[in-house]
Structure formats: C-alpha cells, structure tokens
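Hello forum,

I keep getting stuck at the same step: I have a sequence, I want structure tokens, and every attempt I make locally crashes halfway through. Rather than fight my setup again tonight, could one of you with a working pipeline run this one for me? It's a single chain of 91 residues.
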Amino acid sequence: MSTPSLRIFVLNVPEFAPLAAAARSLPACQVVDHGDYTVITSSEPVVFERRALELKPAVWYGLFTGGLDGKIDTFGRDTVRVVPRRHGEQP
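Reply #2:
Ran it on my machine without issues. Output:
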C-alpha cells in the first residue's frame, strides 16, 4: 500500500506567493518550483489561514485554480484544511 499524498499546484503569480511561502515554513510540506507552477506536497493534512496569509477573499477562494491532488476537507471563510487522498480513493 502506498503512502497517501497531497499535491497542491500553485500558479507562480504574486497573488499566490504567500501560499507557497507559508508551505515552505511547514515541516510536513515539501515545496518545489516548476516554472509557471510551484508544487506543494505532503503526506499529512495541511491547514492554511487566510488572515495569516494576508489574502483578500477573491484570491482566497481561487487558491486551488492551479489544481489539487488531494481532498479539501474544510474550506471556510478564513481556514482551509486539505488532506491527502487515500490509496484507491476517487478524486
């Protein structure tokens, strides 16, 4: 059985830079730049807070426009929790 994994694809634009920066500070996350995208990976759930990232609501609600391989567990006005998809679980 493989380890559950989470991948968040972040567009490399200034609006989303705080998300990648925050992920770099989380021990559970690995962050790799790939040209137009930054890929955040983790085998554990990841939580981000809008106010800590200093994101405006319009940017907050567009966080996952780059794509996501995982599952959004909670997505509220100020907090998002993303979890790895389990082996065999459908997107």
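Residues 6-83 form one domain. If your local run keeps crashing, start a new thread with the error log.
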